[in-house]
Design a protein that fits this description.
By secondary structure, the protein is an all-alpha fold. It has a domain at 6-101. It is built from six helices and no strands. Helix 2 (34-47) packs across helix 3 (63-76). The radius of gyration is 24 Å and the shape is extended. The model is unreliable at 105-109 (pLDDT under 50).
C-alpha cells in the first residue's frame, strides 16, 4: 500500500536529512526507509488510528517508529518543509487529519532548565530593588 506515489516521492526525497552514520561495530538494526515511514505516518493521519495500533504487516514499520521519526522531522524542521508540499501535491489532502501533526512557527524545543531555589532568590532580588540591603546598594552604586 503506497500513499505517496513515485512522482511525488522524487520531489520529496531531497527534503529529508541524510541518514546518520552507523557505528562499525554493533551497529544494530538498519533504519527504516524514509519513504516507508512517511507512508506509515500518512496512513495514521488518514485512518485516524492510534500510533501504537499501526499494523506492522503493512510494511510501514511500527507505529512507534513512525511517531519517533515524525518527532525527529519536526524537531529538525523537515516536517515544516514537507507539509506545504504534501498539502498541495496530494490529491486527497483533505482526507487527512493534519491537526495531529500541527506545525507551529517554532518547532524546535529548547532545553528546559529547572531553576534552583538559590537562583530563583537571586532573580527575585534583581527584579525587586527593595529586597537589597543598604550595603549592597552602596556597592552597586560605586561599582
Amino acid at each position: 500500500m503506497e500513499l505517496v506515489d513515485e512522482r511525488t516521492w522524487h520531489c520529496l526525497e531531497p527534503f529529508f536529512p541524510p541518514p546518520k552514520q552507523r557505528r562499525s561495530r554493533c551497529s544494530g538494526r538498519h533504519p527504516l526507509e524514509n519513504r516507508r515511514t512517511l507512508n506509515g505516518i500518512l496512513f495514521v493521519l488518514k485512518t485516524g488510528i492510534p500510533w501504537e495500533t499501526l499494523p506492522v504487516e503493512l510494511g510501514f514499520g511500527s507505529g512507534v517508529t513512525c511517531w519517533r521519526r515524525l518527532r525527529e522531522w519536526r524537531k529538525g524542521g523537515t516536517w515544516a518543509k514537507l507539509l506545504p508540499f504534501l498539502l498541495t501535491q496530494m490529491q486527497d489532502a483533505e482526507a487527512y487529519n493534519w491537526s495531529r501533526v500541527h506545525v507551529t512557527r517554532n518547532t524546535s524545543s529548547g532545553r528546559k532548565r529547572k531553576v534552583s531555589q538559590k537562583r530563583r532568590r537571586r532573580l527575585r532580588r534583581t527584579m525587586n530593588p527593595a529586597a537589597f540591603t543598604q550595603e549592597q546598594l552602596v556597592v552597586q552604586k560605586t561599582g
